[in-house]
Amino acid sequence: MNKIITISRQFGSGGREIGAKLAEKLGIPFYDNELISRAAKESGFAEAAFENAEKKASNSLLYSLAMGMNAYGNQDIGFTHLSLDDQLYLAQSNVIRKVAEEGPCVIVGRCADYVLRDNNNVVNIFIWADIEARKKRAIEQYHLKENKAEEEILRSDRRRANYYNYHASEKWGKAENYHLSIRSDYIGVDPTVECILNYLQCGERE
Amino acid sequence: MNKIITISRQFGSGGREIGAKLAEKLGIPFYDNELISRAAKESGFAEAAFENAEKKASNSLLYSLAMGMNAYGNQDIGFTHLSLDDQLYLAQSNVIRKVAEEGPCVIVGRCADYVLRDNNNVVNIFIWADIEARKKRAIEQYHLKENKAEEEILRSDRRRANYYNYHASEKWGKAENYHLSIRSDYIGVDPTVECILNYLQCGERE
Q: Would you call A58 exposed, middle or buried from its count of C-beta atoms within 10 A (0-12, 13-18, 19+)?
């Protein structure tokens, strides 16, 4: 299996766990926060800045304007006319392209599907789940409060959608952007991993 | 397997063939044009009117206005204040609900996923494919001319999207509307059928 697999996911859908298990089954690297660290090291950005980029993208225009003004003093990475948000995105994109060149891997989030859109070796997956299942998962695994869980989940999805729509100029969660989109709570995490593996294996044969 | 399976599909993606093969494998009824005939018989509409409804939905507003004016003389089916387009949709929806009540089946197109949205026994599938694969299929199977194929495919998709967006007030092709969305040309028709079967079986166990 010589593929780069990107996973986009709704908050609380189990997408990250599914990606990690998939990478483990395939014996290939898994990039998530690891990707951030690597990008940070290579571009000279602080890790914290990367971690905040996606979180703060709730309102892309305001964020870009605000961060853009702060960024103009920064001469370190050679694209100082861009907002900090765009600089972070470009640095991340370089890292994504680099790990993809190194060989098969699983990359969760960060517009990797869009960054690698011209690479024929990429298979894009979208994971979503029913809101009730996501609430349950968010409460159990991320310890969200029961009365706040739905609000936080929907806010997180809006952030992810805004981040994607801003950088990729494409719609997050549009079926046509992914080889396979799966409602994970209907079958469970492990069967979802199997379902993706099965799709990948069929793709190898085709 | 006690499920109603709805299949939405891009033109040329093989969705209809996949639905038919799925129904055959499961040994359950398959509804497509058959559904039209049945709806026509039960509501008193001519079959031709149903066949034209989806085709003509390219511009929903104009179509509704135009057809609505012609429809006001029709007293046959009891909802004469609606446009003909809406009357057709309601008659179709009644048929879809009726066949779903009768037991497991596969229904292709006609907003069946939306019509049956409150039925917990329904699994919704979306089939799409790369434009080059769809052109090849459309030329081979539907005998479209090579220089017209792409235009006709995209026009057909716009019709389907308009029809869905108008009646369902939802976005056609949004991953979150389907349990499973599959790019069929990447693995082929038969593996896509297997992939759906596998998902359904896992859902039974969950």
A: middle
Pair type for strands B180-183 and A180-183:
antiparallel
ipTM > 0.90?
A: no
pTM score, whole prediction: 0.81
Q: CA of A8: which chain B residue's CA is closest?
A: B175
A198 neighbourhood in chain B, CB within 8 Å: 194-195, 198
Domain covering B4-201 assigned CATH 3.40.50.300 in the classification: yes
Q: CA distances (Å), B94 to each of B12, B116, B133, B202, in order?
A: 28, 10, 35, 30
Rounded CA gap, A172 and A183, in Å?
15
Judged by a CB distance cut-off of 8 A, whether residue B11 touches chain A is: no
- For residue B3, list chain A residues with Cβ-Cβ distance below 8 A: none
Distances from the Cα of B14 to the Cα of B18, B33, B94, B119, angstroms: 6, 16, 27, 26
Interface test with A, best of B1, B131, B186, B190 (most A CBs within 10 A): B186
Instruction: Report pLDDT digits (tens) over B88-121.
Output: 777 788 888 888 999 999 999 888 899 999 999 9
Q: Are A177 and A171 in contact (CB under 8 A)?
A: yes
Domain-wise residue ranges, chain A:
4-201
